[in-house]
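ok trying this again, last paste got cut off
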Amino acid sequence: MNKDQVAGKIKEAAGEAQEHLGRAIGSKSQEAKGHATEMEGKIQKKVGDAEEAVDDAVDSIKKRI
């Protein structure tokens, strides 16, 4: 697991919490901000997943050489 995966997951969880809080208090603004943060976190995690896949592929190629 790399830093983008970890940071993305944290951001995703924080955004989800903010979204639920916004929904609970009836604040569409907080709900929207939370949703945006959650999506940002999901994207960052996917970037981390891609980085890890590339690293794994490079390691696999190095082992063949």
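PB: full thing came through this time. The mean pLDDT is 97.
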